[in-house]
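Let's see one such:

===
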Amino acid sequence: MATTTATQTLIIGGGIVGATLALKLAQQQQKVTLIDARPELSEAQWQDRLKQRDARVFALSIASIELLKEVGAWQLISQSGRKADYTQMQVWQQDGKGELNFGDEMVPQLLGSMVEPFVIEQALYQRMAADDVKEHLTLVAGHKVTMLDWLGSEQGYQVHLDNGDKLQGKLLIGADGRGSLVRREAGIGLDTLDYNQTAICCAIKTEKPHKATARQLMLPTGTLALLPLADVTEQDKANPQHWQSVVWSLPRNRALELLQLNQEGSPETADILRAELAAASQYALGDIEQLESIASFPLNAQQAKHYVKDNLVLVGDAAHGVHPLAGQGLNLGMLDVSALVDILNEDYQRSGGRCWGELATLRRYERTRRPHNSVMMHSFSLMNWLFAGDFAALRPVQQLRSEGMYRVGKIKPLMRFFTNKASGL
């Protein structure tokens, strides 16, 4: 029998951003319901997933780590050992002089941490069952949203699920990714930019250790990132720091050619793919000894024309998506979470607990986050344009880019500024 349940806040999308936001609100004793289309996993199912190494990894900034600490998830991630901290970052280009080196080799300081997506998700979902939040947080898993009804500014939204149940909340938050149903149902338009590139993602074991360094090589065909991965097996731990996550951005046709080699599945084609990748990396870490878990995704940037409407707000990829060359996509979403919670709570306290998610409050969030996200999105697009493609191949552009990287790399205060920005500080 279908039921209707009322709550203060409804969050659609149970990924990292949505789950973190739900926990943060619950910690402030706000009634929140999180709707995740994926079925809830048992402890055994989580453990089965943890046995596998995921080629994908999130480069968590210091700001994102602090937010995960606040909701109690980072402590669980640390205990699991499934993270790879990095204390240095190296960026260089194939066809020019100069490189950018972030971090101090003599006095190592944490710049961030590489963590596989499901490791973060497991920690967040463990926290949802904790006594300090479960009284205020309800998880609805394994059911898809079929329709949204706006009932007016006083009542908010009614959400229809595929099992016939209905949920009602004063505030509806869309944290449901790039293809956001919430954004579409709200009639919010989208600005998009197609890079005509595809990213190949895989896990590799290299001849030389990564030494807690994240590396990014700017190639004429796109960027190649080598990101430290946590050591999973006992064999890995006995010889640590050799596994890395690769994100290799290529023109779409070239990426398809390389992916076809992988699909053929013979040892010879696997050797070709490893050789291509090692050569593209300029053998920065020697030969590639193993290659696992190849995946791909098209590259584009997008931003919602508006982040808010009456009783509705977008966060994370539902609001914006950027080029992965700086690894800041999730970090921008986590900054959305921090800003939204602070602004919601500030106006709620100011009103004596009467006003929650008013349009004026939501617009303050939009004014805070949308300009910042726009600058980041266009900055990453500009970087991609300067290093990859026909324009980037022009000799004057190469010379200007090379001289610019060389000069910037010599200005220590400027490098510290860039480091702080990348850390979300």
